[in-house]
Structures are given as structure tokens and as C-alpha cells.
Amino acid sequence: MPIAASFSARGGLKIRNLRDAISGALFIVFGLFVGSISTTYPLGTAMRMGAGYFPLLVSALLVLLGVVVLVRSLSFERVERDTEQTSLAVRPALFVVASVLAFALLVPSLGLLLAIVALTLISGFAQRQVRYAELAGLAVALAGFGVLVFAWGLGLQLPVLPV
Question: Does residue 8 carry a pLDDT above 50?
């Protein structure tokens, strides 16, 4: 009964990691949003999947992941004075958003291969201490994997190389 005992007058629920709590909440909100949109498409069955089946499945997994991340960011213990100041990291958010936008803009003209390289390189700079050799290797590996899976494996009609 340690959980029930922690909800005393001076104890309760404490957010241990604000970043994880915000991330978990955003995963849940985004998963619910995509899930609600995917239900407007035909779902089909597991044997004959409709257009909304896979997005609904992925959104359910995203909501589940969000719940896990959110719950792990909380602690059920006595709340004392919290001297820890958590600041929001703006740099990583900007680089990740910029990398996704660059990918979306570059796929039609430069193709999937170079767009994935750009996505990886730009998002790699979200970290302050960039290891250039590792980042370049990761970009090449992810680009190759992305082309193998999406262009050749799944047969998606995406330009692989510049048009």
C-alpha cells in the first residue's frame, strides 16, 4: 500500500521530469488527433486493411507510448520543496521542426535519398556537441534504409533521386 499511503495531506503526485511529462502528453494528444482522423477512412480488416487501418494502429501505439512516458515521469511520493528548475530546451525543438520541414520540402525535388540525409543532418544539430563523423554515418545509413524500405520494399511512389 505504498501508493495509497503517499496520498496524504502533505504528500501526493509529483512530476519528476517535466520534459518527459510534456512529451508524454504531446504523444497522447497527437495520437488521439491522428486516430480520430484515421477513423474517417475505411478501416477494413487485418487481412484486407483499409486506408485508415495502419494510421489507427500507429496512433494507438503512440497513445500507449505517451501514457507510459507520462506515467514514468510522475512519482507517487511525499512532495517536498522543489528546488529543481526545469527549463524548456528551445534549440532541439527548433532543429527537429526545421528538419521535418526541410524533409517535406525536399522530397519532391531532391528525392527521398537526399531528403533523408538532410533530415538527419539538420536534426543532428539539435544536440550541442555534434559528432560529425557519427552524424554523417547515421545519415547515410538511414537514407539507405529508408530507400530500401519505402521505395523498394513497400513500393511507394516517391522519387528516390533528384528529378
Answer: no
